[in-house]
Amino acid sequence: MLNGVWMTLDSLDVSPAFLFISLPEEISHRPSRVTFSDCKGNDKLHYEVSSPYFRVNTDGSLVALRNITAVGKTLFVHARTPHAEDMAELVIVGGKDIQGSLQDIFKFARTSPVPRQKRSIVVSPILIPENQRQPFPRDVGKVVDSDRPEGSKFRLTGKGVDQEPKGIFRINENTGSVSVTRNLDRETIATYQLFVETIDVNGRTLEGPVPLEVIVIDQNDNRPIFREGPYIGHVMEGSPTGTTVMRMTAFDADDPATDNALLRYNIRQQTPDKPSPNMFYIDPEKGDIVTVVSPALLDRETLENPKYELIIEAQDMAGLDVGLTGTATATIMIDDKNDHSPKFTKKEFQATVEEGAMGVIVNLTVEDKDDPTTGAWRAAYTIINGNPGQSFEIHTNPQTNEGMLSVVKPLDYEISAFHTLLIKVENEDPLVPDVSYGSSSTATVHITVLDVNESPVFYPDPMMVTKQENISVGSVLLTVNATDPDSLQRQTIRYSVYKDPAGWLNINPINGTVDTTALLDRESPFVHNSVYTALFLATDSGNPPATGTGTLLITLEDVNDNAPFIYPTVAEVCDDAKNLSVVILGATDKDLHPNTDPFKFEIHKQTVPDKVWKISKINNTHALVSLLQNLNKANYHLPIMVTDSGKPPMTNITDLRVQVCSCKNSKVDCNAAGAPHFSAATALLLSLFNLACL
């Protein structure tokens, strides 16, 4: 009796909740009776068997539904009323020489115990169903010690007693009864390894410890769950019947060795349900989803929706009605294959474009029944005829799939007023073998070029001429030439100056003759690298008039029209200097070679009394000025004459101001140099100048 509940098989004494059943190799359809009592009349008594191969009828008869050869299989019989419940576990063991009904088999099991080694502490594994209801604590087993000394006690240790989770099990220290204090969850802990020993009054171990295993018997308390979603599968349209799409796998936390975790799959719902409510089938054991309709029904272009949603149910207990269920949604996409070629919406297209214009002139439209998100729909256009000058290009609009025909080189009405192109369209992806491109995959485009008033064109452009600088005003440089591309129109052209930075030029508006209005200067800031640039306009008489621009590049040849000059023009020297060198002079010239160096350096009109200065050539562009003797502190002005190598040469005279300073104790003092000191020749020239001004 377990907590006031009796459960027996026929009249057998089956008070333990754990039985070993020894079966012949094949037993079927031999009933035996299970008896359960809740002591209150067994109102609404209900039996459940964990194996689909056994059944307990309402009268308590236990029936095998098929031949049984699975030795070692565990079978649970669960009896329940509104007042009480209990469970018995049956383990099938082999026995070739056993015949008869299940009742005989149970008798054999009870009268043929398994031999075991004799010992003082006798323990058997304790099996406890999970999820038991109140009351607690409840006895679940008993430890026996036939030789236990008087006054000794039982002690229970291990995980679940004095180790976490503590307090689940306890033992009556006097009787050896083992009890559980709360309900258990097999999915949390499936087995507990405990130890039993006997101890004296001082707590010393007398015998043991002996292992005691507590096995938590699984109940079907976990629904199957699908943990790997979302579940999305793809199948190509037109796939043969039986094509595997995807696999659905559910997980059940119950004991995998029992039917509590033995899953079966089925399709509960298909959306949409057309063209067939059973487009797919799922293998009940593996969970593989396969197609079951003919390839013709898997036509993406004729389906109401190329996406199907299946409600997949997983049920434990091998799919029996008593099993728990879990569901998930499988989304199946019918993928497109390129079984439709693109077709132009019409055979001929028209376009009009002004000559000289560029850009898109017409959009070619096509139809394709394939999936717009794939290369089976995306179009690729090719110009196969009528484009020898490569004036046209065609590209695909990625949003609309239209062919955008563009002019990439300006068209000339005077050369050709009409163009005819032959265009073909294909898909990015190749067509399936039984589909090909037809006549609808080509189209003709007729293009009309409109005449516009084009600007006159200078030839050549740029125009180039070479002249010497400083040629006389009014000199003719050249006559420009501009032509009107509108050869079919009779128009006149007039010329004008557009840009003349230095204001040197003039153009005849009728004949285009260009002459000078000022001297040309190669050294002008408007001239770069000896080239002067000017722009001219040619305007036709069209309505409205059109204007073209031409460039004139004038290369100016150098003339020796710039005298050289020296640098620096100021120098300092100490009055007691031992080194009488004063300064190194350099010279430069705006002209070009040969009108520049080598330069000639001289002291201009040095008189005999003033011959205290000396100038010496260093190289073609530099000379050294030095003293022949020390001078008193003063400012001296020395006229330097420098001459270039042009023909005829040009000369420039520049005063070099020399400060003779006092240099003592590493300090240079030029403040007391006094009034400027001129050479005698310079003084004489100043006197003559003053007289001339009287």
UniProtKB/TrEMBL annotation:
Localization annotation: Cell membrane; Cytoplasm
PANTHER family cross-referenced by the UniProt entry: CADHERIN-13 (PTHR24027:SF80), CADHERIN-23 (PTHR24027)
Any Pfam family hit: Cadherin_pro
BP GO terms, sorted: adherens junction organization; calcium-dependent cell-cell adhesion via plasma membrane cell adhesion molecules; cell migration; cell morphogenesis; cell-cell adhesion mediated by cadherin; cell-cell junction assembly; homophilic cell adhesion via plasma membrane adhesion molecules
Alphabetized GO MF terms: beta-catenin binding; cadherin binding; calcium ion binding
Described purpose of this protein according to its UniProt entry: Cadherins are calcium-dependent cell adhesion proteins. They preferentially interact with themselves in a homophilic manner in connecting cells; cadherins may thus contribute to the sorting of heterogeneous cell types. May act as a negative regulator of neural cell growth.
Subunit structure, as described in the record: By contrast to classical cadherins, homodimerization in trans is not mediated by cadherin EC1 domain strand-swapping, but instead through a homophilic adhesive interface which joins two elongated EC1-EC2 domains through a region near their Ca2+-binding sites to form a tetrahedral, X-like shape.
Keywords attached to this entry: Calcium, Cell adhesion, Cell membrane, Cleavage on pair of basic residues, Cytoplasm, Glycoprotein, GPI-anchor, Lipoprotein, Membrane, Metal-binding, Repeat, Signal
Compositionally biased intervals (Basic and acidic residues): 139-153
Protein's name in the database: Cadherin-13
GO cellular component: adherens junction; catenin complex; cytoplasm; side of membrane
Gene: CDH13
Region (Disordered): 137-159
Membrane topology category: Lipid-anchor; GPI-anchor
Domain Cadherin: 128-226, 227-344, 345-458, 459-566, 565-678
